[in-house]
Amino acid sequence: MERTIQKKVAVSGGSWITVDVYGEPDAPGLVVVPGVMSDAHAWRHVAGALRAWPSVAVVNRRGRSPSGPLTSAYSLRTEVRDLGVVLDEVGTAQALFGWSYGGLIALLSADERPVRQVIAYEPVMRPFARHALPSLRAAHETSDRDRGVEIVNREISGFSAAHVEKLRADGRGWETLRRLSEPLHAELLALNAAPSPDAMARQADRVDLIIGQCNRGTDPYGTSFEDVRQRVPQASVHEFAGEGHLGHIRAPERLSRLLDDLAGFR
Length: 266
Prior knowledge:
Blueprint: E1 3-10, E2 16-23, E3 30-33, H1 44-49, E4 55-60, H2 76-90, E5 95-99, H3 101-109, E6 115-121, H4 133-141, H5 145-156, H6 161-169, H7 171-180, H8 184-193, E7 204-212, H9 221-230, E8 236-240, H10 247-250, H11 252-263
Parallel strand pairs: 3-4, 3-5, 5-6, 6-7, 7-8
Antiparallel strand pairs: 1-2, 2-4
Helix pairs in contact: 2-3, 4-5, 4-8, 5-7
């Protein structure tokens, strides 16, 4: 489906959020919540290939253009409240889908309001990558965005130096990663400062958790996934064959088909 409109939604602290809507703007559908080092634009191929919902609304979380700043009072609670404002704006959603940090936000949101279905792809929770916080803070304080991108790829995700150099060779792509790294320290700090919930998504009728086959049981995403899964005992677990954390980049059409298949369980 094609993107039809972009909404601007006012949130707390004088900030704002843009929401890219695909399909029928007034029809309840799927709300997509990207995670760290991602924005609404990065999910356009997934959103455009979805067929099971009449509309798809992709949230461009605060801290990434053209949305507003994080603001000084930023926390994980800020993200949950922001999503609540977006849900009120777009109308009753048929389902929430969150990736990584966005998956945690979606699950916590469904702990506070009734939701028909939550789908979370490798959601993360504390403690997650706390070892990287000092180096991320130093990169943030010196505005060294190149270093920020290196840290998230090498020290957190565990990619090789050759992988980082391949990313750097793509000038436009590297510049996008540099831009997306700006709120990285604040987001990871907020993630690790939030209290660990005993349970999540208690008001969801159905919860589906997706784990990339390549990340089963491995740090950091597979182990954090298990921490989340233990707090959502009612969830069904689905493995995304041949993929890791970046399935929306590497295989957007296959991910869309998986999400469409999960919609059939409603």
